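User: Just a sanity check before I run the rest of the batch. Below are the structure tokens for the first item. I only need the designed sequence back.
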């Protein structure tokens, strides 16, 4: 009898063991690896033998040349991606940055330590997990610090859409399109030498639905409901919304992104541009319209363009009747596989009601800024977005009067000639 039980016991043990293996194998790692991406922008530029700390109004849609003032901006994105036997996957993302906004040409003495501007910073660190059987294979959740759903103008380079801060969210597929909900918070005085005892934390509740195909392209929809702590009732809330239309270059070969956005109160900054810079009262209302893209004219000739408008429907950033718009083009000609010639031309305009932005009067009430730039890009791929590249350039910036020139950082007269070499890489 004892001998007959031995095979039975062995079979039971085998079954139990195989069940245990099956239970464990569902979470076994089947793929695990690291990705490294990044960006570099090194701008060596001189005006009459001197480095300068101005972007000539580029962040305010006044110019579109190679005017980023960062002399040595470096960015690395490290991602650890893991996949498991049961279909669950995870991403751990860390984005670090150095030098963004620094205009000094540093030497090897290590003097960066004496300057607290544009030091090494961790800008994103978040975990995203997806593939849960109980949520659906197209659903993922995330939490941490990140830039959510960013979009920037092609020639202005300005991010007009993002939620930048610490938060959490869920993303899935609905009707074959991407849908998501997220909550993101940011403290305006974060990192300040003397932060306020009472925090005025900003929070944005984001709803988005992307990729709706219609009218020969696709539409993205964004809605953001914002609030700010420890503010009066007339400046503690806001709402922003945007519709983005993605298609070819207005019926021609290429691509464009066109958007219209509305923002009020805390969301006055282009409606969907949320971060520590957000905030506003009930009088703040803005309309933002932008359209940019690249036209493929021939095998050798391409052209980038941008048309952007932002204006106050009442007040914007405290300025009554504020209006800004930018018209810019950048034709690009491929000489050969490794050399591209570029020209950038832009016109920027700003105006507001007498006395805006600290009492502007006279010529400073209205500004017209012209920019013409010639450049040659030496690159590994002469396509419009071929990178890495080393681009020598000469840029001419002219204001309509001395008062307008002072506003954008021109030190003498109403014009500047900038000579530089811009080096750029993304990977």
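Assistant: Here's the designed sequence for the first item:
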């Amino acid at each position: 009898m004892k001998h007959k039980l031995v095979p039975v016991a062995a079979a039971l043990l085998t079954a139990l063991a195989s069940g245990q293996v099956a239970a464990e194998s569902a979470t076994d790692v089947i793929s695990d690896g690291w990705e490294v991406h990044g960006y570099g922008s090194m701008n060596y530029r001189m005006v009459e033998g001197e480095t300068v700390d101005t972007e000539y109004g580029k962040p305010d849609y006044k110019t579109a040349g190679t005017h980023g003032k960062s002399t040595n901006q470096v960015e690395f994105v490290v991602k650890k991606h893991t996949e498991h036997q049961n279909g669950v996957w995870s991403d751990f993302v860390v984005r670090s940055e150095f030098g963004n906004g620094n205009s000094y040409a540093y030497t090897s003495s290590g003097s960066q330590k004496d300057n607290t501007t544009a030091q090494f910073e961790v800008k994103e660190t978040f975990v995203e997990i997806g593939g849960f059987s109980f949520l659906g294979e197209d659903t993922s959740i995330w939490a941490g610090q990140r830039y959510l759903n960013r979009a920037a103008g092609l020639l202005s380079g300005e991010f007009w859409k993002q939620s930048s801060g610490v938060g959490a969210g869920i993303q899935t597929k609905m009707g074959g399109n991407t849908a998501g909900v997220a909550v993101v918070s940011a403290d305006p005085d974060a990192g300040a030498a003397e932060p306020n005892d009472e925090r005025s934390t900003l929070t944005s509740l984001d709803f988005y639905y992307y990729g709706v195909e219609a009218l020969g392209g696709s539409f993205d929809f964004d809605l953001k409901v914002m609030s700010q702590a420890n503010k009066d009732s007339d400046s503690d809330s806001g709402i922003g919304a945007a519709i983005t239309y993605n298609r070819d270059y207005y019926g021609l070969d290429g691509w464009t992104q066109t958007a219209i956005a509305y923002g009020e109160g805390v969301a006055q900054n282009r409606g969907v541009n949320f971060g520590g810079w957000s905030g506003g009262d009930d009088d703040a209302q803005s309309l933002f319209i932008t359209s940019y893209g690249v036209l493929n004219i021939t095998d050798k000739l391409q052209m980038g363009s941008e048309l952007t408008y932002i204006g106050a429907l009442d007040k914007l950033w405290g300025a009554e009747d504020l209006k800004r718009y930018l018209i810019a083009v950048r034709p690009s000609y491929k000489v050969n596989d490794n050399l591209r010639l570029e020209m950038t031309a832009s016109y920027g305009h700003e105006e507001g009601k007498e006395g805006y932005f600290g009492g502007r009067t006279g010529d400073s009430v209205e500004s017209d800024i012209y920019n013409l730039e010639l450049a040659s890009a030496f690159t590994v791929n002469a396509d419009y977005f071929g990178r890495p590249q080393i681009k020598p350039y000469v840029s001419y910036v002219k204001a309509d009067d001395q008062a307008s020139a002072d506003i954008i950082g021109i030190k003498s007269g109403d014009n500047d000639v900038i000579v530089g070499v811009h080096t750029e890489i993304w990977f």
